[in-house]
Write a structure and sequence with these properties.
The chain folds into two domains: about 25-180; about 195-410, paralog of FGE (formylglycine-generating enzyme). The chain has twelve helices and 16 strands. It has helices spanning about 5-25, 50-65, 85-110, 115-135, 140-160, 170-175, 175-180, 185, 240-245, 280-295, 305-315, 330-335, and strands spanning about 25-35, 35-40, 45-50, 165, 195-200, 200-205, 220-225, 230-235, 265, 270, 300, 365-370, 375, 395, 405, 410. The strands form five sheets. It has a four-stranded antiparallel β-sheet with strand order 3-2-1-4. It has a four-stranded antiparallel β-sheet with strand order 5-8-16-11, with no helix packed on it. Helix 2 packs antiparallel against helix 5 (about 140-160) and helix 4 packs antiparallel against helix 5 (about 140-160). The chain is globular and about 70 Å long. Pfam families: FGE-sulfatase. GO terms for molecular function: formylglycine-generating oxidase activity.
Length: about 400
């Protein structure tokens, strides 16, 4: 895209977002008092009281640096090797750039957080030390650990304060506050939209046997019966859908270079709105579900279990994939390691299966919950045909975050 076209596009996006903001009923004041968060809307003059704990949860997600940029790789995948020197150098540069931006976000938030003189002095000293660490650029994991410890202490101290009020001016000047308070929970815009697909009753063969091409030793073949219809999200949760509930975007693939024609800027968050959210853990998803249920009390959701997910992904096909058993057909139906070019892509940009589900193979691994453990299904942009089979599975810790792991939910 040439500069003139890009500038025009940016202007259109900016005007559209400004128009949406101008039409919305903005927050005039926001007060944290005890266990409550009280706020008043400017245009309607309506006053609301909600849970302070939701704000603190969203604030933690917005200020803490979630993880290093690591991908989860299914064993025996010989092709994906992100150890090229240029890749590693670029990754290190991005991590330190994100560190600098994260520190700036915390500084901005701290300026409006009613710290005592002692707290302000302690933060100032710590901020100086963290800034020196960024300049030295010696050990990112150690720096991130120190940063998160400082920020966690700040959030804990902040949450203990009995009474803090943010004015409309303070909200407008603080990107973190602006993003969080524009989420569905606080703004009540009712703009969070998800496509649901009905998964019918029925039986199908799940897993795989030793004679099936690509079979892994941890896979078994069995007949599964889906005894009741359920509704499943048509695609994995996108960065926009996550942002609308959580008020921040943890994704690795959110900069303009990954979606040059569709990146809106909302407050301080940069997003590729239609790309799946990633770099999130199962624990993060539980936070998301909690806030989603408080925002829309009539909507009850959960993670699917691995059998529900695989039954839906196969769409009752008797072949390896819903589109057949030929590994040569994977690239045109899934975002896999060659075509994806080491990044995520917009959901629903590959063919859907007969049930109407998109992204059942590739793009991002998808979380499923099975009693007390979490399993990933579907493969990702790091995997080849063997990894992307619906029978493939791999375990993940509840707090593990990876840049090729996302999720979709079942409506209960």
């Amino acid at each position: 895209m040439n500069t003139t076209k890009y500038s025009l596009f940016s202007l259109i996006i900016g005007l559209t977002l400004f128009s949406q903001v101008a039409k919305s009923d903005e927050l005039c004041s926001f007060e944290l008092k005890g266990k409550s968060a009280n706020f008043t809307m400017c245009e309607s003059k309506k006053s609301h009281s909600k849970l302070k704990s939701v704000f603190i949860t969203q604030l933690s997600h917005a200020l803490m640096i979630p993880s290093e940029f690591e991908a989860i790789i299914k064993r025996d995948n010989p092709i994906y090797r992100p150890d090229h020197k240029g890749y590693r150098m670029g990754l290190a540069n991005l991590q330190w750039l994100n560190a600098r931006e994260a520190l700036e976000r915390v500084k901005t938030f701290a300026a409006d957080s009613s710290f005592t003189v002692t707290e302000s002095k302690a933060w100032s000293d710590q901020e100086k030390d963290l800034q020196e660490g960024i300049s030295a650029r010696k050990d990112f994991p150690a720096w991130r650990k120190k940063f998160n410890a400082v920020v966690d202490k700040m959030i804990q101290d902040f949450s203990k304060k009995e009474n803090i009020t943010f004015t409309k001016t303070q909200i407008a000047g603080n990107p973190i506050l602006r993003d969080i308070l524009s989420t569905e929970y606080w703004s009540e815009k009712n703009q969070w939209k998800v496509e649901w697909v009905k998964i019918p009753k029925g039986k199908n063969i799940l897993g795989s046997n030793k004679l099936q091409p690509g079979h892994f030793p941890d896979e078994t073949e069995f007949t599964y019966e889906n005894k009741a219809e359920f509704q499943l999200m048509a695609s994995p949760i996108t960065q926009m859908q996550w942002m609308q509930i959580m008020g921040s975007n943890p994704s690795r693939f959110k900069q303009r270079s990954y979606c040059p024609e569709s990146v809106p800027f909302l407050g301080s968050a940069e997003i590729c709105p239609d790309n799946p959210v990633e770099n999130i853990s199962a624990n993060d998803v539980l936070d998301f579900i909690t806030i989603l249920s408080l925002t829309y009390p009539e909507l009850k959701t959960r993670l699917p279990d691995q059998n529900e997910w695989e039954f839906a992904a196969r769409a009752q096909a008797s072949t390896i994939f819903w589109f057949g058993s030929n590994f040569d057909d994977v690239a045109k139906n899934c975002w896999e390691e060659v075509g994806a070019k080491q990044q995520t892509h917009p959901v629903k940009s590959k063919p859907r299966n007969p049930f109407g589900l998109s992204d059942t193979c590739g793009n991002v691994w998808q979380l499923t919950k099975n009693k007390n453990e979490y399993l990933l299904k579907g493969g990702s942009w790091t995997g080849g045909p063997r990894i992307l089979r619906p029978a493939t599975k791999t375990k993940i810790a509840a707090d593990g975050r990876f840049i090729n792991v996302g999720f979709r939910l079942i409506k209960k």
